Amino acid sequence: MELPRYIKHLDTFVFAIAGYVAIYLFTKYSGVGISPDSIMYASTAESIYKYGNFTTFNGTPLTYFPVFYPAFLSAIFIFSDSAVAAAPVVNGLMFTALILLCGWLISKFRYPSRLYKWLMLAGILLSPALLEVYSYLWSETLFILLTVMFIWAFKRYQQKPGLQTLLIAGLTASLCCLTRYAGLAVVLTGGLLIILDNKLAVRTKLTHLITFSVAGISLLVINIIANSIATGLATGERKPSVTSFAQNLHHFGIVLCDWLGLTHEAHPYGAAIVIIILVGLIAVIIKNIVKQRLADYETLFAAFALIYSLFILIIASISRFEQLSSRLLSPAFIPMLIGCTACVPGTITSMAAKKGAWMVLPAIAIMLGFLYNILLIDLKRYDDEFEYGVPGYTDDDWNKSAFVQFLQTHKSIYEPGVPIYSDADEAVYFFTGMRARLVPHRYFKNDIVQFHRRKRFYLVWFKALAHPELIGLEDIKKFKKLKKLYELEDGAVYEYRE
To answer: Is residue 359 pLDDT above 70, yes or no?
Structure first.
């Protein structure tokens, strides 16, 4: 007798509720973590709600990121005065939805196993990468959920390959692109799976491929055209990468070692671990194609993990952005975890029928060891943040900063009309609501020239920050005779008057 649906998925609900509690605990002390990107998102969301435009805190249109995540955040203002204040609840609900969706999809695998589902959901719930992402106001929170929704939507298309299901999958992929530019990996994944589908006639395959691709990039193309009209830049000002493919592969490997709970001694072998996992994902996809299982959820997870990983590695070797980190790679965590382990239940079932049920024990032991390692990482992080806050502009280093309190209570020290520069323009806005300009990056030579031509400005300098890509205080003093107006232990305010 089949159990009722609400009983059948009760275990998934338990994990989902635990996910919400976990985000609540990590953000309980001082709220959600805030980084410079977070302030960009939150300020744009407020502009969307109040003024109907996509203007950031510095008065320029949002181009460096796509617009869907700030648009999503703007809906928060219907219920709250602050996206930052409401973010712990919103992130907790998104993490809950992510666990619910993953649990439901896992139960639809070719070889459904309740024990396997428990282990996978525990891995998602305890993942340091995901707990970090959902503790911050970052677009990855929405992007990861949308990528898993895409896998569900594309599976529906594969089951019933018609125009309606194809457009639903394409629209989902398009929302991924409109959330993060890396959503192009979702479109590439869908396109690859359509090409590999031997059940489609050649003409139908070509039609579906074109239709899906156009639908998948449609919203992003509109966003890029709007950016180009507004600023002349399609995706913001970007520079060529300064890291090679081999270096990015090494950085990727370090992230994987951290995900697996390995010690620093494993970091030199990180690149080899990445290669082994990517080759394994390719083998899984080829095996499922041979066995005509292209439409299985297991194949979809493996395909996205492979395409997203390769996409990030290649883009990081072409375009300059921050070093590959757990945050940037976090959308690959769930697909990689499932893609590398989905074959285990079927293999164990087959082997157990021949050699006995004890064959399941080694696989369980390995997974339990992995869960134990990442649980220790989570507990250490929680211990660090329980009375300190999530690292960023809401932690105690900032909340209890004398310089920040000074800036908040001395907004009248600046003469109107005189520009304010800072090494953390987003911090000035976040804590005071005032607009400042970021000092130039070292590699934007024209910006440095324009800055040196300034005849008068204020400079708000945070001493604790270290931005090697920005010109430093000493660099400025070589060309400008700064007058120190106020100085505290962690910052100072200067004025330059020619």
So the answer is: no
Q: How far from the centroid of its chain's Cα atoms is residue 426's Cα?
A: 20
Cα 305 to chain centroid, rounded: 14
Q: Which residue has the tokens 């203007």?
A: 55
Give, in order, the Cα–Cα distances in Å from 239 to each of 193, 204, 438, 459: 32, 40, 17, 26
Given a cut of 50, is residue 1 above it in pLDDT?
no
Q: What is the mean pLDDT of the chain?
A: 92
Do 166 and 263 have their domain in common? yes
Structure token digits, residue 23: 């985000």
Q: Averaged over 142-148, what is the pLDDT?
A: 98
**Residue 361 domain flag:** yes
Same domain, 82 and 50: yes
Q: Which among 359, 385, 411 is the end of a domain?
A: 385
Among 175, 182, 269, which Cα is nearest to 218's?
175
Longest CA–CA separation in the chain, Å: 86
Q: Closest Cα to residue 109, out of 453, 347, 271?
A: 347
CA atoms within 13 A on the CB side of 332: 29
Q: Are residues 119 and 184 in the same domain?
A: yes
Model confidence pLDDT, tens digit, residues 221-270: 999 999 999 988 888 888 888 899 999 999 999 999 999 988 899 999 99
Do residues 306 and 447 both lie within one domain? Answer: no
Tokens matching residue 332:
């690959």
**DSSP states of 383-409 as a string?**
HHHTTT-SSSTTSHHHHT-HHHHHHHH
Burial 187-210 (b: 16+ CB within 10 A, else e): bbbbbbbbebbeebeeeebeebbe
**Given 361, 385, 409, which residue is the final one in a domain?**
385
8 A C-beta contact, residue 384 and residue 395: no
DSSP 175-218: HHHHH-GGGHHHHHHHHHHHHH-TTS-HHHHHHHHHHHHHHHHH
